[in-house]
Amino acid sequence: MDDIWTYVGKNDLPYNVIYDRMLWLGMSPYEMRINEPYGPEARRGLDKFHPLEPETWSKIVERVGGVNFGKISGLTELFARGNRIIRPESFKTWKEYAFFLLSTYPPEARDHYLRRINVLIKWWQDNRPEELAAAGVPEGDIYDEHSNPKKETWRTVCRVLLENDFFCTKLCFGVNKREKEKFDALKAKYRDL
């Protein structure tokens, strides 16, 4: 990364001045990315979007409901992304927390997630029953959490729900045409809320 900036500087090449603003905000060259603000990586930097591009930020706030909340909540541990997710103390298990989160969804979305969760549980029961039994996981259930972050657990389910990962990509589901159509229909239905 440093060699790129050295080359740009030595050859007096033009570059986007937003990089100067990023440097001013204390971002390292490895954190400096110009990207659309809605991807998983970009959401972590929503708090920096306002000082970097105030005019664009104003337009986004007017157009995208909840983006300012996302900017603020993205800085707290409760809404942390990735492996930093923390279960609220009022819930004894990730499964309990997941069902609480599901109760906050509109019925169509809740049913969609429940179908995906049931497919996940069935897959584990069909393909890894010995592993679950050896770990003391009750029949018809999955791990609450696991030291291996690649295993799908109730904790992963909570991440999916907190991040509104409609396609459940963190649960190793792919996007198919039918699911995309359902997603588009739900978006249209709840657009004006």
Present the secondary structure layout.
Layout: H1 2-10, H2 18-24, H3 40-44, H4 46-52, H5 54-63, H6 67-73, H7 94-103, H8 107-127, H9 129-134, H10 154-162, H11 177-189
Helix pairs in contact: 4-5, 7-10
Can you walk through the features of this model?
This protein starts with a helix and ends with a helix. It has 2 domains: 2-84, no CATH class; 94-189, no CATH class. The longest helix is centred in the middle third of the chain and has 21 residues, at 107-127. Helix content is 54%, strand content 0%. The chain has helices spanning 2-10, 18-24, 40-44, 46-52, 54-63, 67-73, 94-103, 107-127, 129-134, 154-162, 177-189. It contains 11 helices and no strands. Mean pLDDT is 79; it is low at 76-80. Helix 4 packs across helix 5 (54-63) and helix 7 runs parallel beside helix 10 (154-162). With 193 residues, the protein is mostly helical. The relative contact order is 0.08.
Supply database-style keywords:
0% strand, 2 domains, 11 helices, 193 residues, mainly alpha
Can you describe this structure in just a few lines?
The chain has 193 residues and is mostly helical. It has helices at 2-10, 18-24, 40-44, 46-52, 54-63, 67-73, 94-103, 107-127, 129-134, 154-162, 177-189.
